[in-house]
Give the backbone structure.
Amino acid sequence: MSADPGVMRQLAAIRPFDTRPSGRVSSWPPLPGETLGGHAARQILRLCEAAGLSGNDSVEYARTLLSVLGPVAERPLDMPPPYDSFLSDDHTPVEYSLAFTPDAPPTLRVLLEPGCGAGSLAENGRVGLRAVRALARRWGFSTQRLDELEDLFFPAAPEGPLALWLALELLPGGVPKVKVYLNPAASGEERSVATVREALGRLGHDRAFGSLPPSERPLFFALDLGDWEEPRVKVYLVHRDLSAREAPGLVRTPGGPARSQITRFFRTAAGQAAFGPGSRLGLDVPLDRRPGLSCHAFTSTRSARPSGFTLHVPVRDYARHDGEALDRAVTLLRRHGMDPAPLVEALSAVTPRRLEDGAGLIAYLALAHQAGKPLRVTAYISSEAYAVRPPAAAPLARVGAGH
């Protein structure tokens, strides 16, 4: 790890490295002159503990986060975000997630925008590529698959909401698994379908595009880089007005989740599973605010069909506040034989605020299936470095909306 002076200054400000929270973490007040990097590093230290990682790993991952963020890590939080990052609602270029499976600690992941604050989207992409290649040299993995797609996703005058995001799956030992997220609309939204088709073909998945379900548009194209058992190529699709009845029809994975599992997950995550404020029990009500997403993961070039499927429900737009969102997450985790305690601890590690005082700390809830592996439930957690989205003032039910 390079001893970058800015990184070392940020780490020196985070004292002590003992991250054990006592109850809720209301005992850690923001430091005077807090920076984006200081805020995020303090969060990742506590999240690592909630996920069962060691103190040494926690510190190493805090260093990595600060290094990837680069100069914006030293930006004071009393300044506005460096630019309108698409990564989160308040434009923080950091998001966390916890992926749960039965009988195992959750896996902590962090999603970063290395080029946040660059002068242009093109420069944002160049900074992102440099960050990925620096990590590749550090951890000894190949970027060949990314290199093969550079002209597709990094044109001279890119368009769209992002250039490159970097995801790190934080494992014991201080060496994470690495993923990159790219923008299919880089050459224009009208070319996003052609871009995804071409990218799949270049990576040997010539027949994969034809197996994707109908959608409004592709949103992300993602690649696993480095030490993965079966590196995936993933396509994320937007499904506006998606309903519980329609969601099971998005699955193209052999042996994927049962229709009843997907329907039940959708209804619970979207608040359609029980009577009460905001409930829409028994109604096939679509996601008529923020759309749902599906993700289709391809591993074998010998098969046209994906080996993995994920349904993402944007719970923050269908719950009055984060207390409701957490209740739904706990219900889903328990239903699938997973311990919700690390999620409760993780939310306390990220913020001292009451859950009822905002809507957006839990951004998405997702149900994921990968061939040969147990189902996963993932909760996506916002950093809220710049703003807390206020709770809804009234129940969200719209039973008279004509659906």
